[in-house]
Design brief:
heterodimer; A: 330 residues; alpha/beta; Rossmann fold; seven-stranded parallel β-sheet; 26% helix; globular; B: 265 residues; nine-stranded mixed β-sheet; two-stranded antiparallel ribbon; 6 helices; 15 strands; 27% strand; binds flavin-adenine dinucleotide; binds adenosine monophosphate
Chain lengths: 330, 265
Amino acid sequence: MGKGILVFAEQEEGKVRKVTFEILSEAKKIADKKGEQLCAVCLGKDIAGLGDKFAPYGADKVYLVDHETLGQYTSDAYAKALTDLIIKEQPSIVLFGATINGKDLSAKVAARVSAGLASDCTEMKLDDSGNFCVRRPIYAGKVLADVGFQNTDIIMASIRPNVLIASEPDTSKTAEIESIIPEISADNIKVKVLEVVKASAGKVDLTEAEIIVSGGRGMKGPENYKMLDELAEVIGATVGASRAAVDAGWKDISDQVGQTGKVVSPNLYIACGISGAIQHYAGMGTSKVIVAINKDEEAPIFSKCDYGVVDDLFRIIPPLTEELKKMMAD
Amino acid sequence: MNSIVCLKQVPDTEALIRVKSDGSEVVLDNVKFIINPYDEFGIEEALLQKEKSGSGSVTLVCLGPQRCVESIRTGLAMGADKAVHLDDSAFEGSDALSTAKSLAAQIKSMEYDIIFCGRQAIDDDQAQVGVALAEYLNLPHAALVTKVEVADDKKSITVNRQIVGGEEIIEMPVPCVITAQKGLNEPRYASLPGIMKAKKKELKPVKVADIGLDANEVGATGSKTISLNYSSPPARTAAKIIGGESPEEKAKNLAKALREEAKAI
Ligand SMILES: Cc1cc2nc3c(=O)[nH]c(=O)nc-3n(C[C@H](O)[C@H](O)[C@H](O)COP(=O)(O)OP(=O)(O)OC[C@H]3O[C@@H](n4cnc5c(N)ncnc54)[C@H](O)[C@@H]3O)c2cc1C
Ligand SMILES: Nc1ncnc2c1ncn2[C@@H]1O[C@H](COP(=O)(O)O)[C@@H](O)[C@H]1O
């Protein structure tokens, strides 16, 4: 019998990733049903200040694992610290955000502790017999697979950001906090981080963005993305691109949405001058609301979006930005 | 440099994929199969590194049914020297971690400096095998790699890898595992002489017993995740087209719909 659900609380530079709260909120319901504890584990350097961030979303207990070597993510150090905690506490379920680090860490730790692992899930629940199961898109979202677990004491899953809904934080709740100094030595860490290059500090990553404005080949050239930047600025969006735009060298590879780019799931996705190829849709099909602006009424994107504007994007985006600016000011 | 490239065969990205009406399986009849696109980056990089160092070999390792032979031959035609095909009905139904375990059992007796995997297979989309393979072989790894530089003494490598909001440059000792991300290189096409040469290369199926594993350690029985049911995602209905006499009016109507109807802004 396992001892509770453990959620890997991902933070960067002292800021907790939103997906952590989304997972905690949903996991709380499952923990209650199972009559088990919900725990959050946060790894980092000088993170004592994060102790009270998780109880408002349902955590009963918080482990703060603080160490020099955890200031920056490395698979080696993080896996060592997390594995030690899992072996000691024997949780029945361990959950991660399906972020770059979450997917990396979950695969390494699952292999190390012989857990079953399902990646990039969009739903999790207890079935009628009380067994934990998940739903995950496969074949780039063309199929949904319901997945269960067998022959394992520890179940692991990573959950796609922006899919589960974080509950309203209840700040009157508190959690037991346990500070842990992990045993990590130099020979646990085989990789050395030489340099970190951040594209643009402070910008919300595509995978976490609530609103995305994306531009494709219809943007005609790199200079025109300024128009999208302005629209994004007004509504607090992050700018993405199709592969055609990336291949043309107009945008960076890290901006590419789709099967060979990033999988995103924002509340609102505005596709500008994007035809809606299956490989593009694979990366944004689970967005809650999809808008397409395209001058070709036959463009495939119009058969799989919520709102469409059939017109020249160069004539639509400037007045749209103005309209939204007015609206946001209200 | 001696490299191993883990190659998975997957349905073409354009393939129409259906679910059997009782949800019991995914129907892959008449589907065209290709090398997982990320694994092509791995093959290309292994070939580039071999060319750069002037010596060494590139070996493909693929786990999957008989049909994979075609993709393996394509990889050989690109220039890989040899291939190992783990082909045994016992592997059927292996989940990602079980696949990684089998690949590790095969690879542990081989000689290599770098193992290349794709960042994820575009069929199961797990993004687990490369990382787990490194763990089973007790090797360091770097995921989502967009650049590889081998040190002069060939004892370590420096790689650029994608992270949230940017990239990082890390150094690690050889041997190690890399998972390839788009941007690493532009995979070459198979040449005609390459295709002819690849046809002649020997390929014999490697069975579970050959890699020292028991049949019930692999496949569906040896896996810790099981597929319970498959379904098609709910179809999005055709768009509501926003009308208007002028672009300005359409823009206005769209903004209004987004705020008042979709409540998305
Ligand atoms: C293995 C593989 C993986 C792939 N992975 C990805 C991926 O990850 N992401 C991805 O995006 N693609 C991917 N693709 C490519 C995909 O198939 C398409 O080629 C690509 O998405 C097309 O990009 P696009 O829509 O910007 O360009 P196009 O298909 O050229 O469409 C441009 C659109 O802009 C419209 N347009 C032009 N001018 C204007 C204007 N003035 N105003 C309004 N509309 C205008 C046109 O009507 C057209 O619909 C992949 C392909 C393969 C084979
Ligand atoms: N059956 C397989 N045979 C060989 N390599 C595989 C297999 N499955 C996965 N891989 C490798 O692992 C990578 C990631 O796969 P996955 O974890 O399934 O998304 C792939 O890009 C391949 O390089």
